[in-house]
Design a protein that fits this description.
This is RAB6A-GEF complex partner protein 2. With 391 residues, the chain is mostly beta strands. It has 3 helices and 21 strands.
């Protein structure tokens, strides 16, 4: 019996354009029991082994309609009745939207009892690849599939799932590289300077897009007057960042009892893929904060973007956007004022009213959410970087 073990090198989260590396080991395992002895073990031979990366797209039929279909379904691609061919997406649900060229690892490999053979498979992800996403209408999932076959046996498939981020602006890397005449020339340097990898350039681009701080102020009003003034220190964030803002009630003319802020993502299906005209989008809530602000002059909010979330993106089928959802509970009548005694040594107390005539208003503030360092996302990923099977 041959045991096949596949392990992703480094991490389980990658940026589109990066190279995925996987170490694959084939071992002739000797198992003994009462009826057999290790001396009877024989060499085992594998006819071939191949590896390939593919992305599957699953859609909800009640929400997404693709006419005509732009991708072939797995049932259409799979060769009927042929279980010896290498079809990496055999048995998978949905359509294959991305598939790299299959790479042959070896042919006609014979392993003695206890002997192992290790090879490294690597493949670059296309820059225009869709991101990993698990939504209510659309799901994109990536897998690296290893296929192998023994003579006169069916093909065995081993799959290793991983996650993919997409960062806009990496289609032309020459924009971020310095011209030859502007590069520093050090005559005392013995080792030539190496070019930055795609990950280094992507992190620089990501830092540039999300580090700019420009406070934006918003006057929140309703039909009765001014409720609050909200300040957001920047508009672009990475998953894992904290969204910090302040609420100022000093110049408010409408008393606010309490307010809540919820971080939400909105999944909108493209118009030509909607089952019904004007189909509503799907909103998913994440972090939430709530503040009681009666007689409050200023307060702040701090909302974390989880590392497990998907950054904003757009494909031919779906678009994912992010926003902050505000809910303000305001009074229709002025609140009773607190009487402050003239003598500071005297104490004063205020008892809140038993009933309040309130009104609720909502407001959505769009924000931009980008990817983050895939190393950080891998630290909280639940995807296993290694798996094994027996042939």
């Amino acid at each position: 019996m041959i045991e096949v073990t596949a392990s992703l090198l480094g991490r389980s989260v990658f940026l589109a354009g990066e190279t995925v590396k996987c170490q694959i080991t084939f071992t002739n395992v000797c198992r003994t029991n009462r009826q057999s002895s290790p001396t009877k073990a024989r060499p085992a031979t594998l006819a071939w082994a191949s590896a390939q990366i593919h992305c599957q797209c699953n859609v909800t039929e009640g929400r997404v309609a693709i006419h005509p279909p732009t991708q072939l379904t797995t049932a259409q691609v799979t060769t009927s009745g042929n279980d010896t061919a290498f079809v990496p997406f055999r048995g998978e649900r949905g359509s294959t939207v991305l598939s790299t060229r299959p790479s042959i690892l070896f042919c006609d490999l014979t392993l003695a009892p206890g002997e192992s053979h290790t090879c490294v498979y690597q493949e670059s992800l296309p820059l225009d690849a869709p991101p990993s996403f698990r939504g209510s209408a659309v799901k994109y999932s990536y897998k690296l599939t290893i296929g192998t076959q023994r003579f006169s046996c069916a093909t065995k498939l081993l799959r290793v799932p991983f996650r993919v981020f997409v960062l806009p602006g990496l289609n032309d890397l020459t924009v971020y590289s310095e011209p030859e005449e502007l590069k520093p020339n050090n005559p005392f340097q013995t080792n030539p300077q190496t070019e930055n990898s795609l990950l280094d350039i992507a992190l620089e681009v990501l830092q540039t897009m999300t580090c700019r701080k420009g406070p934006s102020f918003y006057n929140i009003t309703n039909s009765h007057g001014r409720v609050a003034r909200f300040c957001l220190f920047k508009q672009a964030y990475r998953i894992g960042d904290d969204i910090v803002g302040t609420c100022d009630f000093t110049e408010a003319t409408v008393p606010c009892v309490q307010f809540s802020v919820t971080l939400q993502s909105e999944e909108q299906v493209a118009e030509d893929c909607q089952c019904k005209p004007g189909q509503s989008s799907t909103v998913t809530s994440y972090s939430k904060t709530q503040e009681l602000c009666i007689h409050t002059s200023k307060t702040h909010i701090n909302i974390a973007i989880p590392l497990t979330a998907t950054p904003a993106f757009i494909t031919d089928i779906v678009c994912l956007r992010w926003h902050l959802h505000f809910e303000f509970v305001t009074c229709k009548t002025p609140l009773p004022q607190m009487t402050i005694p003239d003598n500071p040594s005297k104490a004063a107390s205020l008892q809140g009213p038993a009933q309040l005539d309130v009104d609720t208003m909502v407001w959505d503030l769009p924000i931009r959410v980008f990817a983050t360092n895939p190393v950080y996302a891998s630290s909280v990923s639940l995807l296993r970087t290694d798996t094994s099977c027996c042939v």
